[in-house]
Structure formats: structure tokens, C-alpha cells
Backbone:
């Protein structure tokens, strides 16, 4: 088949520190991303014939992925054409085929992975010649997690999550993923966090009662967890497991209370660390080895606390071309 195929990884946030809501509605983050072996495959080819762009989606959660204008891979292709100065009547219509393995709206950045894949594939297909750095700039405009899906590995993200610095990490990390029976919308989880924080720290002069509440200030800016970074440098999964943190977790649980039971089950079954992935509702569990991950996956399946269980290892490289000719 003509076309370019790209493999793009899901991500886990080992730390997700969330600052106050900004004027533009986003939140400043300090996050530590790790790309994992769970991935989607995206093929972009010239569509030929009459009609416009087409998106075909198959696999995990395919029905929930928009095949029209709301598709992030399609948005990414349009953004690349614009950045490269290629009018769409020159590039011609495209067909994007997405083979999904990353669950949809699950906190694992599956849509961002597809967008990153489309950027890389279109750059090749159209001979657009954008450098990696230029692709990362386009990626940042498409979505907060898209640049990381290009870069992969382990990296610290700042700003909306799009300003990336590679992180020193050694060793391999073996994860078990508990895929929830349901989805969460990222903006709704951030909004729930804002509400939880506002209820905890009412604005001075607001309807809060009691002098103790009046001393609460604005949410401080998040800081990088140096215990986590040290644990990653030394490749110590037990210490990484201890240091996992996610400021969005209480918000995700407030919208999806069943996650509390899923996390507790993973901890009781011996996970080194248990955390909601990004904005959820997937829960991820760190284990000491590939064998332990198999054991935990089997036990977790039996516990009936999630829709599906998967295993993945990290870190893995970012989006890469696996097949194709322009
Ligand atoms: O950038 P992206 O489109 O992936 O973000 C989706 C939504 O998540 C944003 O519209 C915003 O509501 C929320 N978000 C945020 N702060 C971030 C990243 C995302 O509030 N750093």
C-alpha cells in the first residue's frame, strides 16, 4: 500500500503537578512523562479520486473516535500543511487509517499519539521537510500532549505540558493498566479540580465561613519532584512507585468514584505504586518486573474492578515511521 505508517506511543504521567487555572483556561503544569509500549499505528496516504479527506478507524474504542473534523490526526495534518506553506489543493485529499490500541478518552493521550503520528507521516508523504524542532512547534499548537508523543522516552513537561526537557532515567518499568468501563473528558476533569480547590480555598470575601479559611492563598505553582527524578536516575522501581503523584487524581475520582476501588485493589495485590493516568479514568500500576506484571494483570482481571487489563513497558521512543513510501 502506498502511504506512510507511523507508530506512536501512549504516555503515563509519573508526576502531574497542576498549577492554578490561567487566564486562557489552561493550567501550568510540571509533569514527568513516560512513553509506554502501548501504541497506535497510523497510515496516511493520498486519497485520490473525488471527495475530501477521509479517516478510517479500527480497533480499541474505534466507535468513539470522530472520523470527521473533530479528529485530532486530521487537525494535525491541516496544521502541518499550513506550517509548511503547502496549500491543500497542492497536497490533495488524504486518507488517514488509524489502528487503535490505546483506549480512547482514557488519560493515556491516545488522540495526541494519533496527531503526532499524522504530523510525522504527512511531513514524509508531502516531502514537507520540517525539522524535528519545527514539528514539535506545530505539535504544541495541536494539543498539549502531542509534542511529547513525538519525543517519547522520559521527559519533564512544563507550560501546558508542551515545553519538554529530556529526563535521565535508567532501567525498564513494567506497568499494568486497568482500563475503566467508561471515559472522562480532560477539560471536565480540570474543571472538577478547579471546583475542588475553590471549595477548599474560598476566595477572600467569598461565602467561605471561618477565619482559618481566609488565610488560604492561591494554588502555588507546582515544583518538580526531586525524589522521583532521583529514583528514575537510579532505575529503582520501588522508589519510583512510592513517588508517583497526580494532582488530577482527586478530581478524576470525584467524577468516577469506582476508581478508588480499582486503585485499592492494585495496591492490595502488591503494586509498587498505583495512580490514575493523566485525567483518567485508566489506573496504572507499577510492578518490579515483567513477571510481576503478568501476575498482577491476572489477579486484577479476576478482581473485576475494571473493564480490561493491559500490560506495557516504558520508556519507549516517540513516534516513528515503520513503513511506507511517499
Ligand atoms: O491541549 P489539549 O487540547 O489536549 O487540552 C484539552 C483541555 O484540557 C484544555 O481545553 C483544557 O481544558 C485542559 N488542559 C488544561 N491545562 C493543561 C492541559 C489541558 O487546563 N495544561
Residues:
Amino acid at each position: 500500500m502506498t502511504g506512510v505508517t507511523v507508530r506512536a506511543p501512549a504516555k503515563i504521567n509519573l508526576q502531574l503537578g497542576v498549577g492554578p487555572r490561567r487566564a486562557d483556561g489552561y493550567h501550568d503544569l510540571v509533569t514527568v512523562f513516560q512513553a509506554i509500549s502501548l501504541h497506535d499505528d497510523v497510515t496516511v496516504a493520498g486519497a485520490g479520486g473525488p471527495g475530501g479527506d477521509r479517516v478510517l478507524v479500527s480497533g480499541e474504542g474505534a466507535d468513539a473516535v470522530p472520523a470527521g473534523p473533530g479528529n485530532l490526526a486530521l487537525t494535525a495534518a491541516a496544521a502541518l500543511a499550513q506550517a509548511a506553506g503547502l496549500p491543500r489543493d497542492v497536497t490533495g485529499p488524504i486518507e488517514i487509517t488509524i489502528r487503535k490500541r490505546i483506549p480512547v478518552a482514557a488519560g493515556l493521550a491516545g488522540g495526541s499519539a494519533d496527531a503526532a503520528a499524522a504530523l510525522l507521516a504527512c511531513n514524509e508523504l508531502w516531502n514537507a521537510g520540517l525539522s524535528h524542532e519545527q514539528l514539535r512547534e506545530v505539535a504544541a499548537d495541536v494539543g498539549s500532549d502531542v509534542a511529547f508523543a513525538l519525543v517519547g522516552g522520559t521527559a519533564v513537561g512544563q507550560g501546558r505540558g508542551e515545553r519538554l526537557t529530556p529526563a535521565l532515567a535508567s532501567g525498564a518499568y513494567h506497568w499494568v493498566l486497568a482500563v475503566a468501563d467508561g471515559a472522562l473528558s480532560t477539560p471536565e476533569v480540570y474543571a472538577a479540580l478547579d471546583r475542588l480547590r475553590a471549595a477548599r480555598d474560598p476566595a477572600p470575601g467569598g461565602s467561605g465561613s471561618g477565619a482559618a479559611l481566609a488565610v488560604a492563598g492561591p494554588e502555588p505553582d507546582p515544583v518538580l519532584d526531586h525524589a522521583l527524578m532521583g529514583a528514575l536516575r537510579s532505575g529503582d522501581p520501588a522508589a519510583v512507585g512510592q513517588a508517583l503523584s497526580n494532582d488530577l487524581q482527586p478530581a478524576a475520582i470525584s467524577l468516577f468514584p469506582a476508581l478508588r476501588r480499582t486503585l485499592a485493589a492494585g495496591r492490595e495485590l502488591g503494586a509498587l505504586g498505583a495512580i490514575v493516568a493523566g485525567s483518567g479514568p485508566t489506573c496504572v500500576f507499577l510492578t518490579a518486573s515483567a513477571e510481576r506484571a503478568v501476575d498482577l494483570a491476572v489477579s486484577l482481571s479476576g478482581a473485576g474492578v475494571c473493564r480490561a487489563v493491559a500490560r506495557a513497558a516504558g520508556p519507549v521512543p516517540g513516534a516513528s515511521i515503520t513503513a511506507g513510501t511517499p
About this structure: Residues 206-214 have pLDDT under 50 and may be disordered.
